[in-house]
Amino acid sequence: MSEGSKKVGMIILCIIIPPLAVFIRRGCALVFWVNIVLWILGWIPGVIHALWVVLKRDP
């Protein structure tokens, strides 16, 4: 798969199940648990956080 199609797939996953997208990207780190809490508090904060994590460029 090309890099563009992977990114589109991750964006769709961010919208459907935000914690899963964060888990795939970062593993079981603190950012995953933050996303779980945000997702429980409200779907939209979880989606925004997941998009931020997935689209952020790693150093």
Structural features, described:
Keywords: Membrane, Transmembrane, Transmembrane helix. This protein is mostly helical. It is 81% helix and 0% strand. The protein is built from 4 helices and no strands. The chain has helices at 3-16, 18-26, 30-41, 43-55. Helix 3 (30-41) packs antiparallel against helix 4. The longest helix is centred in the N-terminal third of the chain and has 14 residues, at 3-16. The termini are far apart. The mean pLDDT is 92.
Taken from the alpha-carbon principal axes, the silhouette is globular
- The CA-CA distance between the termini, in Å, is 23 Å
SSE pattern: HHHH
Q: Spans with pLDDT under 50 lasting ≥5 residues? A: none
Largest sheet: none
Mean pLDDT, as a whole number? 92
Class computed from helices, strands and strand pairing: mainly alpha
Tally of strands: 0
Which descriptors would you attach to this protein?
single chain, mainly alpha
Helix-strand blueprint:
Elements lengths: L2 H14 L1 H9 L3 H12 L1 H13 L4
In short:
The protein is mainly alpha-helical and 59 residues long. The chain is 81% helix and 0% strand.
